[in-house]
Amino acid sequence: MYQFKFQKAKSVAEAFAGLGKDGDAKLLAGGQSLIAAMKLRLSQPSALIDLGDIAELRHIKVETGTVTIGAMTTHATVAASAEVKKALPALAMLAGSIGDRQVRNQGTIGGSIANNDPAADYPAACLGLGATISTNKRKISADAFFKGMYETALDAGEIIISVSFAIPKRAAYVKFKNPASRFAIVGVLVADFGSSARVAVTGAGPGVFRIAEMEKALAAKFAPESVANIKVPAEGLNSDLHAQADYRAHLITVLAQRAVAAALT
Ligand SMILES: Cc1cc2nc3c(=O)[nH]c(=O)nc-3n(C[C@H](O)[C@H](O)[C@H](O)COP(=O)(O)OP(=O)(O)OC[C@H]3O[C@@H](n4cnc5c(N)ncnc54)[C@H](O)[C@@H]3O)c2cc1C
Question: Is the shortest distance between the CB of 123 and ligand 1 below 6 Å?
Answer without folding.
Answer: no
